Amino acid sequence: MIDEKLPILIVPDARLRLKARPVGPADDDIVRALAPRMLATMYAAPGIGLAAPQVGSNLRLIVVDVAGKEEAPAPMVLINPEIIAATKEMALREEGCLSLPGQYADVERPERIKLRWLDLEGSRQEMEAEGLLGVCLQHEIDHLNGVLFVDHLSPLKRNMMLRKLAKELKKARDE
Ligand code: ZN
Questions:
Q1: Mean pLDDT of the chain
Q2: Ligand 1 centre distance from Cα of residue 52 (Å)
């Protein structure tokens, strides 16, 4: 059996800090091959979202599925996603990230966003999102710009968390 999963890059991998480039027509085959593998990687982790830079690709491509354990899977593949509007009202929600294993913090983001993207058929899609889906989409789109959720925290909180992660990773390596 072919292992469809991809290795997930962990902080401080420099590739997580690059700005991804837009997907163009020439990338069609790559995206069609990559999207299902990203979904497999996300489900196996398990996670509710994954951005291409987290698996070493520099394309503006994300996958999300915020369906609960008891619900039917609802995978979404978003190509060149763009936030075109955001509310002034902010909401606080706890976030984690597959590239910062075991680290969680409350992050403040716009409560509701409107976004636009291309689906796998190349059709333009648009929707409004709030709650868990809204947060997840904002978090994944941040990844396409080299931004991590800890960047939304105070420098003190961010450094504490990054140091804690480095210590935990070192311990895991040494064991
Ligand atoms: Zn993340």
A1: 96
A2: 10
Task: Tell me, yes or no, whether 166 lies in a domain.
Answer: yes
Going from the Cα of 136 to the center of ligand 1, the distance in angstroms, rounded, reads 9
Residues of the chain with pLDDT under 50: 1
Compute the distance from residue 98 Cα to the ligand 1 centre, in Å. Answer: 6
| pLDDT the model gives residue 2 | 56
Q: Is residue 3 part of a domain?
A: no
Q: Looking at the domain assignment, is residue 63 inside a domain?
A: yes
Q: How far is CA 12 from the centre of its chain?
A: 16
CATH code of 160's domain: 3.90.45.10
CB 84 within 8 A of CB 45: no
**How many domains, the chain?**
1
Q: Supply the pLDDT for residue 1.
A: 44
Which residues are CB-contacts of 174 (< 8 A; sequence separation ≥ 6)? none
Rounded distance from Cα 81 to ligand 1 centre (Å): 15
Q: Which residues are catalytic?
A: 140
